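Table S2 (continued). Query chain:
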Amino acid sequence: MANATLHYLYDPYCGWCFGAAPMLTAAQAIEGLHVEPHGIGMLAGPGRKMMSPEWRDFVRPHELRITALSHAEFGAPYINGILEDSSVVLDSSIPTAAMLAAEQLSGRGLEMLKRLQRAYYIEGKPIADRDVILQTADELGFDHQTFAKTFEDVVATSLDSHIKKSSHFLAALGAHGVPAFALQVGDKVEPFPIGRFYGKPERFAEEIRARLAAVQEPKEASSNL
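Corresponding output:
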């Protein structure tokens, strides 16, 4: 199996990304494949919002479609709590920084991201709240003080750069939104459309394995000449 990277462009407040989480889990089980998350900051900086009826009315039809395709269930605490609470802040930068801190400390950025998605979309927790971030880190077994310091360092030094690079990457792929995937083997990066894989994470993994095997076979053939 060729060593490769599956680039995952996402936003913590993207319901379709929540629906894609099982695909990530399946991809992480592929030998020789590294899954690298890139937070695009959809609701960061000037895009930061407060929860509102307009936002609720915008996302709910999409979420019904997401459930129909991916079988991802949005919890009652989210539907009846978060979406009805005008004090909830929607700021992608905070959960993205938590992902980067977890990745920096132990390579567990995706684990942090998926746990925050569950916290928001199932448990109805405001994931732009620093206390929620630190509670989640505690739950995942990170040392409280170490994680808190790393998180604040990320916010101060590398978060903005990460979001800008991720946004440029998304544009370079020609993608119109997230989630977006790209498969990289060596220096070659190709978009990896995922629409037909919602609710079918094993088929998603099988397609990746097939593509990696196709890359590997010509190399093996040339080495035998």
